[in-house]
Amino acid sequence: MKARPSLSAAQGDIRPRMFIGRYSRGVSPPGERWTNSQKGFGGTLRSDMRAVETNLLVRLIARDDSKQVAAAEAFVERGAWVSHLALVEATWVLSAVYELDAAGIATALEMLLNHKTLTVQDSEVVSAALGHFLKHPSLGFSDCMQLEIARKAGHLPLGSFDRRLARLPDVERL
């Protein structure tokens, strides 16, 4: 049976090997919102902006293949846009494949939001979803994103069968 990838040598210790080296501005202090001044509606208005997909994000975070990490860093060096979908899929991979817990996923998201050359789609939406996720780690990040995307679109309440999600404001349990 193939061993699962690991983000660090010590169980539960994810910070030393996690992403983002020279490009990160670090993790924001608790209670502060994560933003990037390059962001406009849904990201950026630059026509030369590139985009990244899930596997590239995972390589930047997990740093488990040196060739792919180098290629990913070179690709994002000039700036790159991260969609909601790529971000949510990356959190799923980090949880399901790398067995990262909620705290580790939150740290990875904070790093991506504070990355100097990455522009996260609707960073304020992602930041608000991350706030819910930090307060309620038993919720999936994707559920928190769905709520905040609905909020930004002005389509509330969010209907859900999920008992835990329905504890959040603007979620109606069906």
List the keywords.
mainly alpha, 174 residues, single chain, two-stranded parallel sheet
| Helix content bin | 40-55%
Order of helices and strands: EHHEHHEHHEE
List low-pLDDT spans: 8-17, 19-41
Task: Give the name of the CATH architecture.
Answer: 3-Layer(aba) Sandwich
Assembly classification: single chain
CATH topology-level fold name? Rossmann fold
Helices and strands: which structural class? mainly alpha
Strand numbers in spatial order across the main sheet: 1-2-3
Give the mean pLDDT: 83
CATH domain class name? Alpha Beta
Total count of strands = 5
Structure report:
The protein starts with 49 loop residues before the first strand and ends with a strand. It is built from six helices and five strands; from the N terminus they run E-H-H-E-H-H-E-H-H-E-E. The protein is mainly α. Helix content is 41%, strand content 9%. It has a three-stranded parallel β-sheet with strand order 1-2-3. A two-stranded parallel sheet has the order 4-5. It has a single domain (48-173), classed as 3-Layer(aba) Sandwich (Rossmann fold). It has helices spanning 54-62, 66-76, 84-96, 102-113, 123-135, 141-153; strands spanning 50-52, 80-82, 118-120, 158-160, 171-173.
